[in-house]
């Protein structure tokens, strides 16, 4: 697959809304080139010094980059992104230079581009995500480490929607549980569930690239005996009884399978739904309640919402 890199020279203030616009437009990940990164102390946190190239960073403002698949919608998508960014001015957000450039990258370049910006990150009480090419020494003896090579699949583990899912899994998964992960991407949530003590995890994704990446990552983290990865459209044809169903997919997609999520849960089981923008929160909550579940908790991180619901 060919990928296109969209690069936006903007301001610090606009990073978050622009990242949201890019995610909404289907970008698999967003990279921020902020000159502040060059100054930042990283040694204390991870015991390592990172080699960053000043040539990659703008002198002023920040550059937000994202990767979009080259397909027949690309032109429209880019126009929508440009329009949405320009609209930010109406909300008094300073978009700075607002220089938007598009360039094509091939698969290999895309994968290596990620590696430059992807460092170990402690994302919850228990978990630290470490890219496979980093040599990381745990800070605490009870720290759980997920090694990841996201490859071309979504899921570096550090996106707010993923972080909230992992935090929700920490609260809901018990030893011996059966967990279903809908839209597994790199497999990060399935790996986390297995490390939290689940005895069986079913990872599902429609995208073959994700299925392969998830299989690779489950082996890398030595949880492949617990996690099975299958190509599947949402929960279609599934008649299972899980303790936890977790899904980090956009609200529009969650709305398509809230009934199936409820059907595939045991009594007392949890549905963790993430990837929801604020504006869609109520619609998703209504659908979850309509499916017979009760809302236990609503989490919020950087404008993203995750919901923990229970089957009573
Ligand atoms: C936002 S990513 C989440 C990846 C990972 N679970 C995480 O939390 O980082 C959403 C994933 O859902 C998958 N997906 C989208 N539509 C799907 C569908 N209809 N059935 C199964 N998977 C789907 C995508 O391929 C992608 O890997």
From TrEMBL:
Protein name: Ribosomal protein L11 methyltransferase
EC nos: 2.1.1.-
Keywords in alphabetical order: Cytoplasm, Methyltransferase, Ribonucleoprotein, Ribosomal protein, S-adenosyl-L-methionine, Transferase
Role, per record: Methylates ribosomal protein L11.
HAMAP family according to UniProt: Methyltr_PrmA
Family statement drawn from the similarity comment of this UniProt entry: Belongs to the methyltransferase superfamily. PrmA family.
Lineage: Bacteria, Bacillati, Bacillota, Bacilli, Bacillales
Enzyme class: transferase
Keyword flag Transmembrane: no
């Amino acid at each position: 697959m060919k990928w296109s890199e969209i690069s936006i020279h903007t301001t610090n203030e606009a990073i978050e809304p622009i990242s949201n616009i890019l995610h909404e437009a289907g970008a698999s990940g967003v990279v921020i080139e902020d000159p502040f990164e060059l100054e930042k102390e990283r040694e204390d946190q991870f015991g390592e010094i990172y080699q960053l190239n000043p040539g990659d960073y703008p002198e002023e403002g920040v550059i937000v980059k994202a990767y979009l698949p080259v397909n027949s919608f690309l032109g429209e998508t880019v126009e929508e992104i440009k329009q949405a960014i320009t609209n930010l001015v109406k909300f008094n957000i300073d978009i700075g230079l607002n220089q938007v450039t598009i360039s094509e990258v091939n698969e290999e370049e895309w994968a290596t581009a990620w590696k430059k910006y992807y460092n170990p990150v402690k994302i919850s009480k228990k978990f630290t995500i470490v890219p496979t090419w980093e040599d990381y020494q745990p800070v605490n003896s009870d720290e759980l480490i997920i090694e990841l090579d996201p490859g071309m699949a979504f899921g570096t583990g550090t996106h707010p929607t993923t972080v909230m899912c992992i935090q929700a899994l920490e609260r809901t998964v018990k030893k011996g549980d059966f967990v279903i992960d809908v839209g597994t991407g790199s497999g990060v949530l399935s790996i986390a569930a297995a490390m939290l003590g689940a005895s069986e995890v079913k990872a599902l994704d429609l995208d073959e690239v994700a299925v392969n990446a998830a299989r690779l990552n489950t082996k890398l983290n030595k949880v492949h005996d617990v996690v099975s990865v299958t190509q599947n459209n949402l929960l279609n044809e599934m008649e299972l009884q899980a303790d936890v169903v977790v899904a980090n997919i956009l609200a529009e997609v969650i709305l398509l399978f809230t009934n199936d999520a409820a059907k595939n849960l045991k009594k007392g089981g949890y549905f963790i739904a993430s990837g929801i923008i604020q504006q869609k929160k109520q619609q998703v909550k209504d659908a979850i309640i309509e499916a017979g579940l009760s809302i236990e908790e609503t989490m919020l991180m950087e404008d993203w919402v995750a919901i923990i619901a229970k089957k009573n």
